[in-house]
Amino acid sequence: MGSSSVTKKWARAALSHPAFCGLSRAHLGVLIEELAAPWQARRQSVLHERRGGARRRAAGAGPKPELTLTDRVLVTMVHLRTNLPHAALAELYGLGRSTISEAIAQIRPLLATSGFAVPDRPGLRLHTLADVFAYAEAEGIHLRIDGTETQVRCPPAHRPGRRAFISGKKRQNTIKTTTISDGQGRTLWSGADRPGRMHDQTAMRSEGIAEQLRLRPTVKAEVDEGYRSLANQFPDQVNAPPKKPKDDAPLGERYAWREYRRRQPSRRICVEHANAEHRQWRPLQRYTGRRETYADTHRAIAALVSDRAATRTSTRKPSTELVLVQQTAR
User: What residue stretches are annotated with the Transposase Helix-turn-helix domain (predicted)?
Assistant: First the structure.
């Protein structure tokens, strides 16, 4: 028993270092406090389902959990940051692999549903696309939208829908995710996870972006060529690179096209930086887990990145109308 306690204390001290978990110890402490209530609520819900009714024994009876909430959050963070295998984490704690797998399966969905931090608004988080557009309208934010692809495991042969994951651009099995950032590259939302064969614009339309643009006519966005049809539908709100002029076009028109092609990506590059922050976390460089858990993994990482990005200095004065507008959107 004493040896097991020493092993867990050593593992907790080592894995809490930012090099392993990707967060400062202060940020990690705040995260554990925020997850305590939803974790306990979900745990009680699961126990209620297993018992099939009310508790039959006094609280605290029965076997004690092998990992505390702090340890569960730590192993999840280290796995998300470094993609360290469950078996390796189990060896560090002197436990079975299934215990670590269960802990990660419990904490990862809580991180994925925690929402995205709002700059200059501590405690307020964005959960849906409607929240993002309400925030952009209230604060006068010029959104940046871009899709990113992550290579995933190839589905088994002869399985229906196997070709849906083959990206026409990368010629690999991928999953696409759309990221929305502000003008300073801070992640405001990440979602619309779809198989790699689906077009970026189709993925966002299926999330309801066209409806949000109609509801919020003052919200503007910078996009790349993949969203040209959306820009054609909302020319006053969505800005995409112009089409290349024909070879016989006047020289001045071709020069103007080149200059615009240079300026527009420079305004949109910040969302590329946001995606690059996400890819610093090992699972999003090449995802080797089950494809069914990719959406939660990506969203959890993006939410953690947004926490750090929201603390960056802002040059914008916050609006007092944001909370009211967001509540109306919901």
Answer: 66-115
- In three-state secondary structure terms, 194 is strand
- The two tokens of residue 226 are 């993949």
Distance CA 193, CA 42 (A): 25
Cβ atoms of 9 and 71 closer than 8 Å:
no
Tell me which residue of 235, 266, 268 sits closest to 142, measured CA to CA: 268
In the chain, which residue ranges form alpha helices assigned H by DSSP? 2-15, 18-21, 25-51, 69-82, 86-93, 97-112, 129-139, 200-206, 209-215, 228-233, 251-278, 294-309, 322-329
Residue 174 DSSP SS3 = strand
Strands 220-222 and 238-239: parallel
Rounded Cα distance between 13 and 315, Å, is 37
User: Quick one: tokens of 225?
Assistant: 């060529």
Identify which has the larger pLDDT, 212 or 162. Answer: 212
Tell me how far apart the alpha carbons of residues 117 and 127 are, in angstroms, rounded to a whole number: 9
Among candidates 182, 127, 128, 120, which has minimal Cα distance to 320?
A: 120
